[in-house]
Amino acid sequence: MTEDRLKELFKEKGAIVPTSVTTFPSKSDRSSAGICEFPTTQSASEALMLCNHTPVVCAQGKAPYIVKLAYAGGRDGREFRY
């Protein structure tokens, strides 16, 4: 899953597009991990509700990716990233 494809998914689902997307090095072609940052808590919550568990066609296999989103704590431990 590329950053551009993930942003496109949010747009397709009618969610606010993240202000920042960071992907982490992948251990396999079948999984991906990273962080999406949104301008507000509300926009992050709406994006999670609209996009979580969305199947995305994957060229590397028969089965689609299933997008799984979750909240993550902020760098300082007091704020949250969405």
What features would you describe in this structure?
There is one protein chain. The protein starts with a helix and ends with a strand. It is globular and about 35 Å long. It is built from 2 helices and 6 strands. By secondary structure, it is an alpha+beta fold. 11% of the residues are buried. The chain has a two-stranded antiparallel sheet with strand order 1-2. The protein has a two-stranded antiparallel sheet with strand order 3-4. The chain has a single domain, classed as Alpha-Beta Plaits, CATH 3.30.70. The longest helix has 11 residues. Helix content is 26%, strand content 20%. Strand 5 and strand 6 form a beta hairpin. GO terms for molecular function: nucleic acid binding. Pfam families: RRM_10. InterPro entries: HNRNPL_RRM, Nucleotide-bd_a/b_plait_sf, RBD_domain_sf. It comes from Steinernema glaseri. This is RRM domain-containing protein.
In short:
The chain contains two helices and six strands; from the N terminus they run αββαββββ. β5 (72-73) and β6 (80-81) form a beta hairpin. With 82 residues, it is an alpha+beta fold.
